[in-house]
Amino acid sequence: MPTVCYDGEEPVHVHVERDRSSAKFWLDPVVLARSSGFSRSELRMVEGVEKAWYEFFTG
């Protein structure tokens, strides 16, 4: 399940974790910051969900 965070000086971002896979996306704009264990297709899918979520909640 994605977790939205603000860690000190970092911009707002989302952590996505599943089993031993993890990824971090900046939200404004939605950009992959880092990943480990997810395939490219999984990352594209998550990025699309993050973009839709961000657009829905920020207008």
Description of the structure:
- This protein is α+β, with helices and mostly antiparallel strands and 59 residues long.
- The protein has one domain (3-58).
- 32% of the residues lie in helices and 39% in strands.
- The protein has 1 helix and 4 strands; from the N terminus they run E-E-E-E-H.
- It has one helix at residues 40-58; strands spanning 3-5, 13-18, 21-27, 30-36.
- A 4-stranded antiparallel sheet has the order 1-2-3-4, with helices on one face.
- A hairpin with a 2-residue loop joins strand 2 (13-18) and strand 3.
- The longest helix has 19 residues, at 40-58.
Question: Mind sketching the topology for me?
Answer:
Elements: E1 3-5, E2 13-18, E3 21-27, E4 30-36, H1 40-58
Keywords for this structure?
alpha+beta, 4 strands, 39% strand, 1 helix, 59 residues, 32% helix
Ranges where pLDDT stays below 50 over 5 or more residues in a row are none
Whole-number total of structural domains: 1
Largest sheet: 4 strands, antiparallel
Arithmetic mean pLDDT:
88
- Coarse morphology: globular
Report how far the terminal alpha carbons are from each other: 23 Å
Number of helices: 1
How would you classify the helix and strand content by structural class? alpha+beta
Number of strands: 4
Query: Percentage of helical residues?
Result: 25-40%
Strand arrangement, major sheet:
1-2-3-4
